[in-house]
Write a structure and sequence with these properties.
- The protein is of the alpha/beta class.
- It has one domain.
- It is built from 11 helices and 9 strands.
- A 7-stranded mixed β-sheet has the order 1-9-8-2-5-3-4, with helices on both faces. Strands 6-7 form a two-stranded antiparallel ribbon.
- Strand 8 and strand 9 form a beta hairpin.
- The chain starts with a helix and ends in a 33-residue tail after the last helix.
Length: about 300
């Protein structure tokens, strides 16, 4: 009960903040991004290191420009997400100005064979929940925060009227629920570019660097025969009210390959291609490469950042 009460208070605070006009939120987000860079905050350090790893061909000045764009977009997306979480779908969906491939989604749902929806950390992935539940119920896999209050807040923020969203933790019981949902012809949502625990994935290239990548998505697809689609919401324009273009795309056949390396390589290649559309819209503030093939902690590319 204390965690739920604290989460309810946080939700009310988020709702109050998100109610500010868009121009005010945008200026606030830009101030946050400026402070991250000025204070060399964790978000700034991690993003800079990721860009060094993923875009070694760029000049330092070009990476710095991209780095500033990443932090600016990240801060804006954070405040936009608070607004999405605290408003009904009818108020949020007008932000989606374009739709590409929506028929693929509707056809996959209608087929009844089960649907795996892969959503990279690109653009505004939280907005997609509102769009999907207008068409079908979804079972969403998520990694629970260590804080009980944080977990309660996320569950409240992502709750959908009519129980159209089932949130399951990324643990044993949750995994079994995903299999059951797919075998019953339902839809499950997975963010495929989160680093799994050691032993729950294999290394596959991502921006030319071996990255530990989850095998869950490919195992689900291979064992159930479910359809796999990639979805993302990409920001279009940079002024006024946030506007997004929604994209639905069939996953390459290799995603369902029995060979986990072949499958994860196909997954990462697809996520990378999407991220390269507008690199500043990808979540570069996440430590994607902490676990290395060598298994040695000293090979962690973020290790020296923690000493600052």
């Amino acid at each position: 009960m204390p965690a739920r009460f604290a989460a309810a208070l946080l939700y009310l605070m988020a709702k109050g903040l998100a109610a500010l006009p868009w121009p005010v939120l945008r200026r606030l987000a830009d101030a946050i991004a400026w402070a991250w860079r000025r204070l060399d905050a964790r978000e700034s350090r991690v993003a800079r290191r990721n860009l060094e790893l993923a875009f070694p061909e760029l000049l330092p000045s070009e990476r710095e420009e991209m780095h500033a764009g990443v932090l600016r977009y990240t801060a804006r997306q954070f405040l936009e997400t608070l607004r999405i979480w605290t408003r009904p779908a009818a108020a949020n969906l007008p932000m989606i100005r374009e739709q590409h491939g929506a028929g693929l989604f509707d056809a996959a749902v209608a087929s009844g064979r089960g649907l795996i929806i892969a959503i990279p950390h690109y653009g505004n992935w939280e907005l997609l929940n509102h769009w999907m539940v207008e068409r079908t119920g979804i079972c969403v896999l998520y990694r629970a925060p260590q804080s009980a209050v944080g977990d309660a807040f996320l569950r409240k923020a992502r709750h959908c009227p009519g129980d159209r969203v089932t949130q399951v933790r990324a643990e044993g019981q949750g995994m079994r629920q995903l299999f059951t949902t797919l075998r019953d012809g339902g839809a499950v949502v997975i963010l495929p570019d989160q680093q799994p625990k050691s032993g729950d994935g294999v290394f596959a290239p991502f921006f030319g660097i071996p990255a530990l990548t989850m095998t869950l998505l490919s195992r689900l697809a291979h064992r159930t025969g479910a359809k796999v689609l990639f979805l993302w919401c990409e920001r279009i324009g940079d002024d006024g009210t946030p506007a997004y273009s929604l994209h639905v795309e069939e996953a390459p056949a290799e995603v369902s390959d029995e060979d986990p390396v072949a499958a994860t390589t196909a997954i990462n290649a697809t996520v990378e291609r999407i991220a390269r559309r507008a690199p500043t819209q990808y979540q570069w503030t996440y430590k994607r490469y902490t676990l290395r093939p060598s298994g040695r902690k000293q090979d962690n590319p973020y290790r020296d950042l923690e000493r600052r």
